[in-house]
Amino acid sequence: MPIGGPKPANSGFYRLLRAGAFRLAALRLGAAFFLAVFFLATFFLAVFFLAALRLGAAFFLAVFFLATFFLAVFFLAALRLGAAFFLAVFLLAVFFLATFFLAVFFFAAFRLGAAFLLATFFFAAFRLGAAFFLATFFFAALRFGAAFFFALGLVAIFVLVPDVPFSTTTKLES
């Protein structure tokens, strides 16, 4: 029994204690949710970069373990130091991870060069079909004028039409 007799259930001390327990539970629940979302986001981002950049499993594992390490540090710090620190660390983590992924993406883009970007574009154009490819360019040409239309038409014909021999003789005639 506390000194001075029993305390009523709605006294200031017990209300503060209940509020603190509620906040701790909310913080732990928020951290658990952040953990799940972060693992899912890390997995999908790593898979995306693995497929897109084709750097192999080492890159996937490096990203995953790096994210896991930082997440564990942030999770423990958040539980010990409170929600304000958790929010600040979360924002810093988002900033640094975004910077890291952007740096990796742009490094890979510059490393692969313009050929990769052009190949991706032309692969998408051929995959969607020559009609879409031509329609896209002719639509743009109509906006920019007849000279542009003519130039892009020639480019599209050079790109899309396979090399056809000019000889009209058949194999039997030759």
Task: For this entry, give a set of tags.
single chain; 82% helix; elongated; 174 residues; mainly alpha; 0% strand
Taken as a percent bin, the fraction of beta residues is under 5%
Structural class: mainly alpha
**How much helix is in the residues?**
over 70%
The termini sit apart by 113 Å
Rounded radius of gyration (Å): 30 Å
**Which sheet architecture does the biggest sheet show?**
none
Strand element count: 0
List low-confidence stretches: none
Mean pLDDT: 59
| Order of secondary-structure elements | HHHHH
Descriptive report:
This protein is mainly alpha-helical and 174 residues long. It has a domain at 16-113. 82% of the residues lie in helices and 0% in strands. It has five helices and no strands. Helix 1 runs antiparallel to helix 2, helix 2 (57-81) runs antiparallel to helix 3 and helix 4 (130-144) packs antiparallel against helix 5 (146-160). The longest helix has 46 residues, at 83-128. The mean pLDDT is 59.
